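Supplementary Methods. Inverse-folding protocol.

Structures were first reduced to a C-alpha cell string of length 261. This string, shown here, constituted the complete conditioning input.
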C-alpha cells in the first residue's frame, strides 16, 4: 500500500509541475483553505470545498487507486482524476470572495500578482497565434475544403501531420485510421498507415490496392513524397494542390461508397 501511495505522489508531482508553474497549486491550496474557513453557503461549499477535497483524498488513497485500475483496466490515465479538482475554478472563486470587501485595492494586488507570476503565452514553442477562426492550420483547412462533399461522406488518406485537423474541420471526411497511430506507447498497427508512412518510397501498386480496400476516394501526399510509380498510372487524377500537398482522386471509387471512421 505504501508503494502505491508513493507512486500516486510521483504522479501528482509530475502533474503539478507539468506547466512549470508549481506555484499555481500553492495558490489553489491557499484558496481552498480560505474557503474552508470563510464559505458559509452549503451549495457553494459542496462545489468549491468538499468536492475538490474528496477528489484529492481519493487520489492518494491506495485502495481507491487499486479499485480504479481494476474497474477501468487502465493505470496510465489515473492522473486524469486530478482534472476533476478544477483548480482554476476554486482559485478564481476564492480570489473573488477574498477581494469582495476591498475591491479596488485587491484588484490592483491581484493584477500585479498575475503579471508577476504569469508568462507571455506565445513565448512557448508549443503555442502559436491562430491563423483563422477555427484555430487550425490554414493549409489543413484548405485541404479539407477541397475534398469535402456536401452530398456524401468521403474517405481520405492524408499524411500524419494532417490527421489531427481534418476531422476537426469536417465530420463528412472519414479516414482509414486516426490519431491512435501517432501515439507510440499505444503500439497500434495498421497496414495502410505502414504503407503510407513506413517507407521512404511508396510502393505504388500495393499502395493503390490498399487504398481501394479501405475505400479511399482521395489520397493526399506531401509534394516531396516519393513514389515508385505515379498514381496517375493507376486510375488516379491530379485533383488539386496546395503549397505543400498534392491531392489525388481515385476515379474508380464512388463518393460515399465506403468509409471506416
Amino acid at each position: 500500500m505504501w508503494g502505491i501511495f508513493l507512486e500516486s505522489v510521483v504522479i501528482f508531482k509530475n502533474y503539478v509541475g507539468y506547466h512549470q508553474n508549481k506555484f499555481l497549486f500553492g495558490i489553489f491550496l491557499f484558496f481552498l483553505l480560505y474557503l474552508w474557513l470563510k464559505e458559509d453557503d452549503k451549495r457553494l461549499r459542496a462545489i468549491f470545498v468538499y468536492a475538490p477535497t474528496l477528489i484529492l483524498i481519493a487520489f492518494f488513497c491506495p485502495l481507491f487507486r487499486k479499485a480504479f485500475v481494476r474497474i477501468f483496466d487502465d493505470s496510465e490515465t489515473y492522473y486524469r482524476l486530478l482534472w476533476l479538482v478544477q483548480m482554476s475554478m476554486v482559485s478564481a472563486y476564492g480570489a473573488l470572495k477574498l477581494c469582495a470587501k476591498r475591491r479596488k485595492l485587491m484588484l490592483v494586488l491581484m493584477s500585479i500578482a498575475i503579471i508577476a507570476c504569469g508568462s507571455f503565452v506565445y513565448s512557448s514553442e508549443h503555442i502559436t497565434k491562430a491563423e483563422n477562426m477555427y484555430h487550425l492550420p490554414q493549409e489543413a483547412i484548405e485541404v479539407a475544403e477541397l475534398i469535402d462533399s456536401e452530398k456524401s461522406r468521403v474517405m481520405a488518406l492524408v499524411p500524419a501531420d494532417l490527421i489531427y485537423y481534418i476531422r476537426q474541420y469536417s465530420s463528412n471526411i472519414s479516414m482509414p485510421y486516426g490519431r491512435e497511430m501517432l501515439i507510440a506507447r499505444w503500439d497500434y498497427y495498421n497496414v495502410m498507415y505502414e504503407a503510407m508512412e513506413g517507407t521512404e518510397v511508396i510502393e505504388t501498386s500495393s499502395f493503390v490496392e490498399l487504398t481501394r480496400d479501405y475505400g479511399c476516394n482521395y489520397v493526399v501526399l506531401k509534394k516531396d513524397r516519393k513514389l515508385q510509380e505515379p498514381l496517375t498510372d493507376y486510375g488516379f487524377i491530379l485533383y488539386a494542390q496546395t503549397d505543400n500537398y498534392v491531392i489525388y482522386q481515385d476515379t474508380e471509387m464512388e463518393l460515399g461508397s465506403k468509409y471506416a471512421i
